[in-house]
Amino acid sequence: MKILRHLLAVALLLAGSAALSAAPPAKTTAPKPDKHTQHRQAAADFFVGHIPRLKIELSPEQREKLQKDERNYAEATLTEATLAGPVIYQKVAVKLKGSAGSFQKLDAKPGMTLRFDKAKGGERFHGMTKIHLNNGAQDGTYLNEFIAGEMGRRAGVPASRCSHAFVELNGRDLGLYVVKEAFTQDFLAAFYKNTDGDLYDGGFCSEINENTEKDRGDPHDKAGIKELIAASQEPDNAKRWERLGKILDVEKFISFCVLEDIVCHWDGYNFNRNNYRFYRDPDSGKFSFFLHGMDQVFGDENFPVMRGFDSLVGGAVMRCPQGAALYRARFDYLHKNLLVKEDWSARITTEGRRVREAIAAKDGGWAKAYENQINEARSKVARRITAIGKQLGVPVKPVVFDAKGALKIGPGWTFQGTEGGQGDEVKIENRDCLRLVATGAASPSWRQTVRLEAGRYRFEAMARTAGVAATDDERGKGAGLRVSGLPKRANFIEGDASWQALSYEFETGGGDVPLVAELRATKGEVWFLRDSFKIVRGK
Question: Which residue of 127, 291, 349, 447 could cross-link 159, Cys pair, CB 3.0 to 4.6 Å?
Fold first, then answer.
């Protein structure tokens, strides 16, 4: 009996071993993507998918609330018409967005921000908690932000992804919109391992030491931004470069600067201190900047590739010889590896036709007209890339100073106007002058760019004024001289003033220096003596 039990046990053991050897290997489960990855994938599918119709419904009470306070959220219902049928989002927060050129009232074609997480239990919109609906008021192609953002991301510069949608508001067809992802934690996760850092909104035409708001992070902790401001304001080049390297991701910032220049982003951080966000990575402790608000890009194919910056941080970096050298090297690299190697005309054509096909389903005449907008977008980008190549390929030698260390600034001045500002070339006392006139709050200017070697200089000219009522802002007041992108000028003339000398001392790391002779006033006029403009080399 014992022998039989022993034999049975051996048989069972052998049978079990055979079964195990014949069994397929156990399946291994791939790790589940983290939530940010899942959300970004859902968003990625939306940005390349069907162009939907979004129907926004506001109750009479919520509509009245939004009309009275356009910049604060009201509650709405959003219905997305998809290929699989309607998808309804309840308790969606809606407010109006836009600034001087793009803002429109609720009864027109308003730009809007939609949040899906304001109410408890809100459902994400294709993985996103917040989106922007841009009305295209300043971009008839509806492609500028899309293509500039893609260029930025391929260069490693954070920028939002974009798509399109047709929008209805309380049954009123508002037409085509650009759908843009917002700067949320999910957005940050695409560019940073740690998304718990400080995210700042630069505000409207404001520098980092003015009206910035912290969108993420402890609102009371201002140590990081104070350190960035102090480093940027350090007067000594060598010390400034060292301090900036501790608080600013210089390489990423250089790429950001180059991209703003490539896409001619005159309304961005470096050239207008507008449309920007910046983030302090808690892992490195350093700041980097995001591209934003690029609906007016590619407007000037000859936008200089080496020029001064109006921004505090950009000017601080570029005044250091190391910064200017890195900028030029990065520009050369991105021209070769981003602009020339990529077929941007084909990319614009693909996205433009995607939009046109969606338009054709609504209106064949509109679709035919939109083909011209695709051609315009493609042509602008192609001309810009060609112009950049010409600028980079033709070295311009710095100007030559006379034996006394002075350089006369002759012909080549161009007028830059603003609303209420005028400029012309006149004679006064039989002498050639550049005149500026203010007939309302204005800041008209005469400008010329010169290429200088690294060093200290003084910009000089003679001027006289009549009836100037000066305004004062961060760049200066009254009539005066400055260099675009460098600190505020102290020189000014106002009221009725006879001929007198103006001067502005500055330092450059080398490259193109934009000279500005301007009037910042609510009324009055100034004459700059044309043959008095000069640059004097410092010691």
Answer: 291
CA distance 440 to 301: 31
Asked if residues 34 and 127 have their Cβ atoms less than 8 Å apart, the reply is no
Q: Report which DSSP code applies to 397.
A: P
CA distance 35 to 189: 10
Please state, as a whole number, how many other Cβ atoms lie within 10 Å of the Cβ of residue 149.
Answer: 25
Sign of CA dihedral 42, 43, 48, 51: positive
Three-class DSSP category at 199? strand
Q: Please, which residues have CB within 8 angstroms of residue 235's CB and are 6 or more apart in sequence?
A: none
Which of 67, 78, 184 is CA-nearest to residue 129? Answer: 184
**What residue type is assigned to position 72 of the chain?**
N
- Residue 500 is inside which H or E element, if any? strand 495-508
Task: Tally Cβ neighbours within 10 Å of residue 428.
Answer: 12
DSSP assignments along 430-487, one per residue: TEEEEEEEESSSB--EEEEEEEE-SEEEEEEEEEEEEEEEE-EETTEEEEEEEETTSP
Structure tokens at 110: 């308003």
> Alpha carbon of 55 to those of 79, 182, 387: distances in Å?
5, 20, 43
Return the amino acid letter for 301: E
On the 0-12 / 13-18 / 19+ scale of CB atoms within 10 A, 404 is exposed
> For a pLDDT cut of 70, what percent of the chain falls above it?
93
Q: Note the pLDDT tens digit of each residue in 148-200.
A: 999 999 999 999 999 999 999 999 999 999 999 999 999 999 999 999 999 99
Phi, psi of 358 (to 5 degrees): -70, -40
pLDDT single digits (tens) 25-75: 555 566 677 787 888 899 999 999 999 999 999 999 999 999 999 989 999
Q: Point out the least confidently predicted range of 199-213, 286-300, 384-398, 454-468.
A: 384-398
pTM of the model: 0.76
Residue identified by tokens 């003015």 is: 210
Strand 431-438 with 421-428, pairing:
antiparallel
Q: Please enumerate in sequence order all residues whose Cβ is within 8 A of that of 71, keeping only pairs 6 or more positions apart, or say none.
A: 95, 96
Spatial separation of the C-alpha atoms in residues 435 and 465, rounded to whole Å: 10
**Three-class HEC string of 149-193:** HHHHHHCCCCCCCEEEEEEEECCEEEEEEEEEECCCHHHHHCCCC
Q: Do you know the residue count of the chain?
A: 539
Helix axes 144-154, 344-360, angle to 10 degrees: 140
The Cα–Cα gap between 339 and 381 comes to: 10
Strand 130-134 to strand 286-290: parallel, antiparallel, or no bridges (unpaired)? unpaired
User: Distance between CA atoms of 435 and 201, rounded to whole angstroms?
Assistant: 38
Q: Which residues of 74-109 are buried (b: 16+ CB within 10 A; e: fewer)?
A: bbbbbbbbeeeeeeebebbbbbbbbeeebbeebeeb
